[in-house]
Amino acid sequence: MSSNVPCHICAAPVQEFFDFGRQPLSDAFLPADADLGQEFFFRLAVGVCESCTMVQLMEEVPRNRMFHEAYPYHSSGSAYMREHFENLAKQLLSTELTADDPFIVELGCNDGVMLNVIAGHGVRHLGVEPSGGVADVAAAKGVRVRKSFFEESVAKEILAADGQADVVYAANTLCHIPYMDSILAGVRTLLKPTGVFVFEDPYLGDIVERTSFDQIYDEHFFFFTARSVQEMARRNGLELVDVERLSVHGGEVRYHLAPAGRRSPSEAVAALVAEEERRDLAGLGTLREFGDKVMKIREDLTALLEKLRAEGRTVVGYGATAKSATVTNLCGIGPDLVPFICDTTPAKQGRLSPGTHIPVKEPSAFSGDYPDYALLFAWNHAEEIMAKEQGFREAGGKWILYVPDVHVV
Ligand code: DWN
Ligand code: SAH
After folding, report:
1. What share of the chain has pLDDT > 70, as a percent?
2. Does the residue 297 lie in any domain?
3. Whose CA is nearest to atom 26 of ligand 1?
4. Helix (H) or strand (E) holding 276
5. CB contact set of 111 (below 8 Å; sequence gap of 6+)
6. Distance (Å, rounded) from C-alpha 44 to C-alpha 389?
7. CA distances (Å), 285 to each of 49, 217, 277, in order?
8. Among protein residues, the one whose CA lies closest to atom 15 of ligand 1
9. pLDDT of the residue at 4
10. Ligand whose nearest atom lies closest to the CA of 148
């Protein structure tokens, strides 16, 4: 175990608390004829900063390996998430975007799931998205996109071309970016003094409470809390002024940051920081206990899958999520236990899952001949998927879930 990695926020030592071992890139689905010997692996381990309490990965994967032309995740793949982002867009339009000719910049706009609503209202906007394929999908919807990684130099160019922004927004993107100083300097450069930086990401409090360890993978570098975000903001001339708990993706928090001294922090901020303190959320004891629970899930899940195989039952994976790479690689689940995973994403179909090489197939492979059990890797979309797949239940099928523990429904 190494404990001398400097924190990406404050440079104090980061204390490692869990090692997932050798892991592949979670969204690197391989062509069926790929040279498997060439696959990229890294050591996935997490630690907590002794000083600012930010939970983060111990090793960083170069960004171009993860986010590129063929990045396969399309945000619009879930009806529930489309609705979530439509609601957020409407909320911003009626609160922060009411000045004359307002301007909003979104970091990691992906396929335009949020900005296409803003564009539909004729509001000035710009998406900054390095993954070319999904950026093209956004552009085809009428979203104005710049294909690049957001960082300070890019913020200066946007400022020169478009002027200051009323809102900078990022969903499930800020936690992907280790070079936070450059990002927050860029946000400060771009924001009007009266503007706001709003971002939402998986919440460490929910990950620990539900043992949703599969939120930990290459792309997710930081695991935020109100306390660590407060410190991160303070170091960069910003202030945490509001927090909202969200139920999407298994539990997130939406943070609102304003230039320091410009807005008064809401009571919700102090309340969440106090709750984290009470739970000792960033304490090594709490985090090591989380690690013990992960090992218990690993043991229970492999035992269940091996038992079902011995009984001659069929099990199919549902949702080739980025999260599933952590689960399958940690538990050693390959095609011998789960012969295929079905997924609606064309860019994943016909390919092999990273590291464990489970074939990914179209949803028709599932509904054409229902298995006895479906292992729900997309558990964060359980409600939507179970409603859609009622036929599976009616045919006697059962869902296997592994969060917060291994259970069958
Ligand atoms: O943070 C991230 C989140 C927002 O998206 C990224 N780093 C990568 C990605 O993570 P993920 O792949 O774990 O996200 P989801 O949203 O849990 O992925 C759902 C997967 O399941 C997609 O591949 C689409 C698929 N799916 C399906 O086959 N049928 C989804 C639904 C709703 C369905 O009905
Ligand atoms: N906002 C979407 C997409 C999340 S996936 C949603 O919530 O569903 C994370 C996205 O961040 C990817 O599309 C990836 O290309 C993008 N990304 C990664 N690094 C980035 C950076 N430095 N600037 C802007 N976007 C980035």
Report:
1. 99
2. no
3. 319
4. helix 267-279
5. 74, 75, 76, 134, 137, 138, 141
6. 34
7. 14, 22, 13
8. 321
9. 73
10. 2
Say if residues 292 and 211 touch (Cβ distance below 8 Å): no
**Structure tokens that stand for 140 in this block:** 């085809």
The phi, psi pair for 378, rounded to 5°, reads -90, 50
Q: How far is the CA of 219 from the centre of ligand 2 (A)?
A: 9
Query: Ligand 2 center to residue 110 CA distance, Å?
Result: 6
Domain CATH code at residue 236: 3.40.50.150
Which are the contacts of 114, defined by CB distance < 8 A and separation ≥ 6? Answer: 85, 86, 88, 89, 106, 169, 171
Q: Which two tokens stand for residue 377?
A: 């890797």
The answer to whether residue 199 is domain-embedded is yes
Separation of alpha carbons 145 and 178, rounded Å: 22
Place of tokens 């993860």: 66
Ligand 2, atom 13, lies closest to the CA of: 110
75 CA distance to ligand 1 centroid (A)?
7
Q: pTM here?
A: 0.98
Q: Which band of pLDDT confidence, cut at 50, 70 and 90, is reported for residue 117? A: very high
| Number of structural domains in the chain | 1
pLDDT tens for each residue of 12-68: 999 999 999 999 999 999 999 999 999 999 999 999 999 999 999 999 999 999 999
In a domain, 308, yes or no: no
Output the CA 173–ligand 1 centroid distance in Å: 14
- Which stretches of 103-164 are DSSP H helices? 115-120, 132-140, 152-162
Write out the residue range of the structural domain in which residue 149 sits: 75-285
Sign, CA torsion 132/134/136/142: negative
- 31 inside domain: no
